[in-house]
């Protein structure tokens, strides 16, 4: 694997290999007082974030350090970007300084692909940690890892993705990954929060959350991305919560084995109630834990193995 830029087109065998590696790493580190492996000693990993992040940035940093890589964090606000430096020049600077891998989060869709093109000659790997409303592949991988752990597998499982699909890179990455791994995906959202070309995606679509819940194995609740909204996509936060919020009453509609996911940060009381977010059915904390092992696995496949491009 040369880069990880998207789940659309990602070979399902490669995706499964990454998930299997994450499982193996998790078992290897279980119970160890010192969670440190020498796998990436001598490698330099740089996180380049142009947008705010807690879970993704921290888990990539921990993942790199647990594998003995040197991890350097670069924030746009504290770098030469604040002086007007272009993304291309920043990328070439990092490569020249010795970066083996650049993990980028950017507000522009396609930024990670552009970065990979600019760094091709340097041989620097690129990981997309979220680009605009396009994709967030490692989030989808950690979601898949969590579902495999809770449900025993993904094939023929029915996963409902609920809420602001239109603005969600998490939804896009999950749609492509889950479908490629054999799951059935149903999008549950108001028509105003669905992509224009939703008919071309490997999904079914519904606007009735209560009707879908009894037949799903998992519910992925999305954050309402108000910062990306320009105009009225729903009447009010209260009405959105009534129609699409996952609350205790709706929790009772789910099968006993069902799992609740949320990529975070959560808007408690609107998208999901605290009673659901903190209930045993919720795997939200496990998503964060699995995120470290999945991102370790991604770095392993990028920097410690020989493989073709992706």
UniProtKB/TrEMBL annotation:
<feature type="binding site">
    <location>
        <position position="139"/>
    </location>
    <ligand>
        <name>carbamoyl phosphate</name>
    </ligand>
</feature>
<dbReference type="InterPro" id="IPR036901">
    <property type="entry name" value="Asp/Orn_carbamoylTrfase_sf"/>
</dbReference>
<feature type="binding site">
    <location>
        <position position="136"/>
    </location>
    <ligand>
        <name>carbamoyl phosphate</name>
    </ligand>
</feature>
<feature type="binding site">
    <location>
        <position position="223"/>
    </location>
    <ligand>
        <name>L-aspartate</name>
    </ligand>
</feature>
<feature type="domain" description="Aspartate/ornithine carbamoyltransferase Asp/Orn-binding">
    <location>
        <begin position="156"/>
        <end position="302"/>
    </location>
</feature>
<dbReference type="InterPro" id="IPR002082">
    <property type="entry name" value="Asp_carbamoyltransf"/>
</dbReference>
<comment type="pathway">
    <text>Pyrimidine metabolism; UMP biosynthesis via de novo pathway; (S)-dihydroorotate from bicarbonate: step 2/3.</text>
</comment>
<dbReference type="Pfam" id="PF02729">
    <property type="entry name" value="OTCace_N"/>
</dbReference>
<comment type="similarity">
    <text>Belongs to the aspartate/ornithine carbamoyltransferase superfamily. ATCase family.</text>
</comment>
<dbReference type="GO" id="GO:0005829">
    <property type="term" value="C:cytosol"/>
</dbReference>
<dbReference type="InterPro" id="IPR006132">
    <property type="entry name" value="Asp/Orn_carbamoyltranf_P-bd"/>
</dbReference>
<keyword id="KW-0808">Transferase</keyword>
<dbReference type="GO" id="GO:0006520">
    <property type="term" value="P:amino acid metabolic process"/>
</dbReference>
<dbReference type="InterPro" id="IPR006130">
    <property type="entry name" value="Asp/Orn_carbamoylTrfase"/>
</dbReference>
<dbReference type="InterPro" id="IPR006131">
    <property type="entry name" value="Asp_carbamoyltransf_Asp/Orn-bd"/>
</dbReference>
<dbReference type="Pfam" id="PF00185">
    <property type="entry name" value="OTCace"/>
</dbReference>
<feature type="binding site">
    <location>
        <position position="265"/>
    </location>
    <ligand>
        <name>carbamoyl phosphate</name>
    </ligand>
</feature>
<feature type="binding site">
    <location>
        <position position="264"/>
    </location>
    <ligand>
        <name>carbamoyl phosphate</name>
    </ligand>
</feature>
<feature type="binding site">
    <location>
        <position position="83"/>
    </location>
    <ligand>
        <name>L-aspartate</name>
    </ligand>
</feature>
<comment type="subunit">
    <text>Heterododecamer (2C3:3R2) of six catalytic PyrB chains organized as two trimers (C3), and six regulatory PyrI chains organized as three dimers (R2).</text>
</comment>
<feature type="binding site">
    <location>
        <position position="169"/>
    </location>
    <ligand>
        <name>L-aspartate</name>
    </ligand>
</feature>
<protein>
    <recommendedName>
        <fullName>Aspartate carbamoyltransferase</fullName>
        <ecNumber>2.1.3.2</ecNumber>
    </recommendedName>
</protein>
<feature type="binding site">
    <location>
        <position position="56"/>
    </location>
    <ligand>
        <name>carbamoyl phosphate</name>
    </ligand>
</feature>
<comment type="function">
    <text>Catalyzes the condensation of carbamoyl phosphate and aspartate to form carbamoyl aspartate and inorganic phosphate, the committed step in the de novo pyrimidine nucleotide biosynthesis pathway.</text>
</comment>
<keyword id="KW-0665">Pyrimidine biosynthesis</keyword>
<feature type="binding site">
    <location>
        <position position="55"/>
    </location>
    <ligand>
        <name>carbamoyl phosphate</name>
    </ligand>
</feature>
<dbReference type="GO" id="GO:0004070">
    <property type="term" value="F:aspartate carbamoyltransferase activity"/>
</dbReference>
<dbReference type="GO" id="GO:0006207">
    <property type="term" value="P:'de novo' pyrimidine nucleobase biosynthetic process"/>
</dbReference>
<dbReference type="GO" id="GO:0016597">
    <property type="term" value="F:amino acid binding"/>
</dbReference>
<dbReference type="GO" id="GO:0044205">
    <property type="term" value="P:'de novo' UMP biosynthetic process"/>
</dbReference>
<feature type="domain" description="Aspartate/ornithine carbamoyltransferase carbamoyl-P binding">
    <location>
        <begin position="2"/>
        <end position="149"/>
    </location>
</feature>
<feature type="binding site">
    <location>
        <position position="105"/>
    </location>
    <ligand>
        <name>carbamoyl phosphate</name>
    </ligand>
</feature>
């Amino acid at each position: 694997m040369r880069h990880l830029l998207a789940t659309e087109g990602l070979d399902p065998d490669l995706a499964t290999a990454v998930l299997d590696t994450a499982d193996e790493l998790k078992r290897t580190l279980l119970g160890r007082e010192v969670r440190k492996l020498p796998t990436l000693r001598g490698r330099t990993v740089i996180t380049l974030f142009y947008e705010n992040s807690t879970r993704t940035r921290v888990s990539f940093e921990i993942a790199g350090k647990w594998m003995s890589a040197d991890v350097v964090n670069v924030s746009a606000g504290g770098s030469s970007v604040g002086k007007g430096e272009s993304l291309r020049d920043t990328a070439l600077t990092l490569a020249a300084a010795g970066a083996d891998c650049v993990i980028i989060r950017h507000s522009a869709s396609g930024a990670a692909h552009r970065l990979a093109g600019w760094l091709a000659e340097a041989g620097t790997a690129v990981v997309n940690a979220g680009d605009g409303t396009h994709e967030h592949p490692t989030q989808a991988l950690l979601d898949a890892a969590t579902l495999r752990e809770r449900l025993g597998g993904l094939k023929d499982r029915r996963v409902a993705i609920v809420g602001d699909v239109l603005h969600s890179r998490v939804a896009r990455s999950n749609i492509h990954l889950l479908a490629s791994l054999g799951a059935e995906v149903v999008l549950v959202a108001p028509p105003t929060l669905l992509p224009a070309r939703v008919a071309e995606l490997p999904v079914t679509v519904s606007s009735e959350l209560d009707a879908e819940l009894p037949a799903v194995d998992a519910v992925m609740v999305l954050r309402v991305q108000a910062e990306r909204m320009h105009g009225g996509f729903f009447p009010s936060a209260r009405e959105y919560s009534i129609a699409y919020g996952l609350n205790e009453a709706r929790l009772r509609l789910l099968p006993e084995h069902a799992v609740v996911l949320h990529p975070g940060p959560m808007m408690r009381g609107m998208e999901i109630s605290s009673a659901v977010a903190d209930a045993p059915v919720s795997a939200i904390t496990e998503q964060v834990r699995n995120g470290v092992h999945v991102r370790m696995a991604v770095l392993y496949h990028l920097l410690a193995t020989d493989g073709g491009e992706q």
